[in-house]
């Protein structure tokens, strides 16, 4: 087999890259370890920056997003029961975010790729990368027990945090930065109307909680839990009781209890691998970086990586220029580190850290009071939440 760009991973990063390149007539093959149904079964992000919406428009897959997505002009921060609204639209000269589940984004991209007739090989086992430090990289994989070789010009490592691509880079050529948080997020998806019309992030005496949504009839809720917590110890009733004890009273009173259709615990980490290019292998999305979901940046960073990488690859094939590819890692990392900072800052502001001293608890409260009483402070939060420029 041969293609121009081999893409490892059919998550949002891999599918978006495939779609943008296919629309320019650049041949791609996506190799995905799991089945398409399994990929769609993973419940993850829910908030899209304006930049990502524009990327999906550019990819020709934004029709359902504009029909079903919920445009939000603001969100609320709550601290020990006090609530402050961040007026995204007013503080950023009109920018907003769109609530539209990652599952839907992935589904739209899968349908578009199938319509383009581009090749995606699901349940591809034992994917291995070869010779990406030379001019003739290859990818080998096993499908239905048969090992196949895929020759290509470039490899895009879009295979997430636990993928094979980053692990294929020789130890001495990559540097990793990491912080693991001493808690996780227990998330519930339920077909009940949201408790508030905008997102509410709360830091209460009992810990962090987030009220989000997927539509007017589907809510997404999270509560901070200790790292050793087991999801089977959390009945729906226990979850909703805990949620209502952590959000402001008016929000708690508006929570509709209903059976969970998904319930899981996700660990929180900050992680960056530098650089993001190794010869003809380019890392993008979670394969190169992870943010705690508090800032709603993970999926959106994957989109900006793909913005830079697709531009570089299109320039290579259209203009025979490698300027974009040469600058990919530097451009992507400049934006990644700023999103890492914001996600770390939001996580530090809104969670209970077991090791926090009374002084550090006062710092959290002072941070909230500053933002709640400063237009400049609120504007800083708004500018980062809608997404810094690409
Ligand atoms: P993905 O991990 O989505 O996709 C990688 C793909 O590569 C997967 O389909 C995987 O099966 C495949 N793969 C892995 N190894 C492979 C191999 N060896 N061969 C072939 N294929 C392989 N972000 C937010 O903004 N908000 C959130 O609330 C949020 N919640 C999250 C909750 C969880 C539990 C997780 C894990 C992440 C969450 N994220 C959230 C971040 C998430 O949305 C990611 O940023 C997003 O999925 C990044 O997309 P990709 O880079 O495509 O990686
Ligand atoms: C979600 O709806 O899943 C969501 C929204 C905002 C976040 C994290 C998760 O910061």
Automatic annotation (TrEMBL):
It comes from the Bacteria. SUPFAM superfamilies: FAD-linked reductases, C-terminal domain, FAD/NAD(P)-binding domain. GO terms for molecular function: 4-hydroxybenzoate 3-monooxygenase activity. Its EC number is 1.14.13.2. InterPro entries: FAD-bd, FAD/NAD-bd_sf, HB_mOase, RIFMO-like. Keywords: FAD, Flavoprotein, Oxidoreductase. This is p-hydroxybenzoate 3-monooxygenase.
């Amino acid at each position: 087999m041969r293609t121009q760009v081999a893409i490892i991973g059919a998550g949002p990063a891999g599918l978006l890259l495939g779609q943008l390149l296919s629309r320019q007539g650049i041949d791609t093959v996506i190799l995905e370890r799991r089945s398409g149904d399994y990929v769609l079964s993973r419940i993850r992000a829910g908030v899209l920056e304006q930049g990502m919406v524009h990327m999906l428009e550019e990819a020709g897959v934004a029709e359902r997003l504009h029909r079903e997505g919920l445009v939000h002009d603001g969100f609320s921060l709550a601290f020990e029961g006090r609530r402050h609204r961040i007026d995204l639209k007013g503080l950023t000269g009109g920018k907003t975010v769109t609530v539209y589940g990652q599952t839907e984004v992935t589904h739209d991209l899968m349908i578009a790729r199938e319509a383009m007739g581009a090749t995606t090989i699901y349940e591809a086992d034992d994917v291995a990368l070869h010779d990406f430090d030379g001019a003739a990289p290859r990818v080998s994989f096993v499908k239905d027990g048969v090992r196949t070789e895929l020759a290509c010009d470039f490899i895009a490592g879009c295979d997430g945090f636990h993928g094979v691509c980053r692990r294929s880079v020789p130890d001495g050529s990559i540097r990793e930065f990491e912080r693991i948080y001493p808690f996780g997020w227990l998330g519930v998806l339920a077909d009940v109307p949201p408790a508030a019309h905008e997102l509410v992030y709360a830091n209460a005496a009992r810990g962090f909680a987030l009220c989000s949504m997927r539509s007017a009839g589907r809510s997404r809720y999270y509560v901070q839990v200790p790292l050793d917590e087991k999801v089977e110890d959390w009945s729906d009733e226990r979850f909703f009781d805990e949620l209502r004890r952590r959000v402001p009273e008016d929000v708690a009173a508006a929570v509709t209890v209903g059976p969970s259709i998904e319930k899981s615990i996700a660990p929180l980490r900050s992680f960056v691998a530098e650089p993001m290019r190794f010869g003809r292998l380019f890392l993008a999305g979670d394969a190169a970086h992870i943010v705690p979901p508090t800032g709603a940046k993970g999926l959106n960073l994957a989109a900006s990586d793909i913005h830079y990488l697709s531009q570089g690859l299109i320039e290579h094939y259209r203009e025979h220029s490698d300027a974009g590819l040469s600058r990919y890692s530097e451009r992507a990392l400049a934006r990644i580190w700023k999103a890492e900072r914001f996600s770390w800052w939001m996580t530090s502001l809104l969670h209970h850290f077991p090791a926090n001293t009374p002084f550090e608890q006062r710092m959290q409260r002072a941070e909230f009071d500053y933002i709640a009483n400063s237009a400049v402070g609120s504007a800083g939060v708004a500018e980062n939440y809608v997404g810094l420029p690409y």
